[in-house]
Design goal:
single chain, 394 residues, alpha/beta, Glutaredoxin, 6-stranded mixed β-sheet, 12 strands, 30% helix
Length: 394
Amino acid sequence: MHTFKQHFAALTAITLSAAAIAAPVKREASEHRDKLTGMETKPFDRAAIADLTDWTHAGVLDESNTKGRVVVLAILSSSDSNSIMALTKLARMHRDYADQGLTIAVIHPEFGFEDMQSKVESGRVTLPVAKDTNNTFVKSMHTDDYPDMYIIDRAGNLRYADIDKNALKAAITNLISETPETAAANAALQAQGLEPTPAEPKSSPAPTTTPAAAPSNNTPSSEPTRNATNNPSSAGSSAQWPPQAQGRDRISSQDFQGQKLPQRLGLNEEWLTEEHVFEGKVLVVEFWASHSSPGRKVAKIHKALAEKYPEQLEVVAISGSEDKEKILKRYNDGKRPYTHLYDANETLFKALGFSTVPSAVVISTDGIIRWQGFPLVRGYEEAVEQIIAADPGL
């Protein structure tokens, strides 16, 4: 029989929790989900971190600089486009919450680590990165995809194993609101299936996205493979996307609707504006030339859409059929006040099957092309707005 004191202690434990009980934070689908769930709410084994080497920043991630802090361990690869997108989000999280007790560390496989080191040295990656020799850490964490993220609370418990990327900010804000004591109490509740509600995240500027290119065939066998359940297009499979432009309005020899870009944006192009990673917004890619009269009309449409949806939409203009200096002069006139890239070989333009400008593709936040064609066709602006409204990633 439970005594009044036992009942009171149980109620006190619940009161100590930082948030009400509700549906759990979403995790990634994984064939190892049972093992991952079994790791949660238990003290994180810091011995696994001790085997990581070649830290790119001074100091090693150990108990001396992680005790009492919320720690995000992000396993990713510099050769994976989704990982590159995640780096921008992680850097933003570190910027916003480091002074509230957040530590973020990146774990990279041995293959391709030199490329990540060069990104750190050039200043493109500011987070500490360690090398996982022989994928020892990856195997211990049951990683099956890039990027995979794990979050440790202030009490040293692994609270979230392989968290869904869209739930990252909510999970972080929840855990940094805890003290070590409430973290321990909430972990105990979570172990019973009573997971606290994530704290409502503070609003911050929407991040900027690089749509992922189609998978390459040179991924080494030692790297995790991407599960079908984690396919970026699956999240938007039930959304109501606009119909594709038909016939001459598509102005392309190939239909890419429902597919990724045939190559990663920014791979072959030169940046004319400040380089950044695109993430978290619907992306309009406009192909243009300064001599195109219809292109000037398209510029007005895209400028108006970008101003109307500053948090949901980004426009990037790509040119290449004429001299770069001429393009720069046109850019500086302010009629296209958005991101500009230049590719003299028109690689992406040709890969998409386009043969005339202006032309455009509209890409949802999961990196999938939702519309392609002539951007002066009737209903184009409505199609862009429909994509914004339907995108589950916004």
